[in-house]
Design a protein that fits this description.
- Helices cover 46% and strands 4% of the residues.
- With 197 residues, it is mostly helical.
- The protein has a two-stranded antiparallel ribbon.
- The protein is globular and about 40 Å long.
Length: 197
Amino acid sequence: MAMTNVDFGPAAQRLADLIARTTDDELGRPTPCPSYTLGDLIEHVGGMAVAFAAAARKERGPAVEGNPPGDAARLGGDWRTRIPRDLAALGQAWQEPGAWEGTSRIAGMDTPAPVIGLVLADELAVHGWDVARATGQPYACGPELLDAARSFLGQVAGPDAPAGPDVAFGPPRPAPADAPMLDQVVALAGRDPGWRA
């Protein structure tokens, strides 16, 4: 897990655009993440954006101590503008000097900043794909982000991962070696690359 200095700005912007185009009547849709409706997933992304930006800035406080599972009931009325704004701030925070250096905190644990960055690559790539699939929007990821996400998932994905409707990430699924990189990444994250709403 030695990759560092991934530019998260483009992926954060793609995810922000997907969310900004989501309508209120789509929030109850299913997603490839079996435990989340689209509204739950978007609320999770909002919390993730704040937490990982705080981690990049080496901040301490509630944002980096762990968030409850996504819940559409906590979205609030400004989600369509607030979450894209927070995603933009996330991309910028990881471009600042020192973001990838030293140790930071996320989910209540002190962790090397490069590892946190790789976890973020996974979050952006996979949840961007989730939102796009749930809403029927096109989606693409840059190779640098996908390499970082695959690097992380290759270290942590295993057949003993929890499965079922109550988990956000399941055990990896098989994907052909010649499958597109995005399909390989989402399969490692326990998704079915062929999933459709």
